[in-house]
Automatic annotation (TrEMBL):
Family matches, as InterPro entries: AhpD-like (IPR029032), AhpD_core (IPR004675), CMD-like (IPR003779)
Pfam families (UniProt xref): CMD
Taxon lineage: Bacteria, Bacillati, Actinomycetota, Actinomycetes, Kitasatosporales
Protein name, as recorded: Carboxymuconolactone decarboxylase family protein
Originating species: Streptomyces prunicolor
Residues annotated as domain Carboxymuconolactone decarboxylase-like: 16-96
Length: 158
């Protein structure tokens, strides 16, 4: 499959990509645990079907020490016993924040309150921005059919 657009040859894409990368670095430097960030990024990407991001966040999580058992169970986290209550709250918020068209109310008060039991305001802010960021990146990759899933190496985008 060939990409519909070549981001590397577009001046506007280059400028926007720098901003996107800056957002990603800011989130990584936050107080939200790195492995939670990777699990959330992976789950959002699974829901959206973004192969590049699934590849990236699976490998980044593994490089950060995540186990293959937990990575393999992210898609079925509700039935899995390997996630903490905090991680489960983050994954649930990520799902409702990604499936806003499926749930007319967006993120429910119950899901928000559960996340707020486990994360402080700064971590919740990071979580909300991360979910929004991943949805945006997923859509950019899917719309333009970026074909590099499988080629990602941990740390590749620094």
């Amino acid at each position: 499959m060939d990409a519909r657009l070549n981001y590397l040859s577009s001046p506007i894409a280059g400028k926007a990509a720098k901003q996107f990368m800056a957002v990603g670095r800011t989130l990584k430097g936050s107080a939200l645990p790195a492995l939670t960030q990777e699990l959330v990024a992976l789950r959002v990407s699974q829901i959206n079907g973004c192969a590049i991001c699934i590849d990236m966040h699976t490998k980044e999580a593994g490089a950060a020490g995540e186990t293959s058992v937990r990575l393999n169970l992210v898609a079925a986290w509700r039935e899995a016993t390997v996630f903490t209550e905090a991680e489960r709250a983050a994954l649930e918020l990520a799902e409702e924040g990604t499936r806003v068209a499926d749930a007319a109310g967006g993120v429910s008060d119950e899901v928000w309150a559960n996340a707020a039991k486990h994360y402080d305001d700064e971590q919740l802010t990071t979580l909300v921005i991360l979910v929004s960021f991943m949805n945006s990146v997923n859509r950019l990759n899917i719309i333009t059919r970026q074909p590099c899933a499988g080629d990602y190496e941990p740390g590749m985008f620094g």
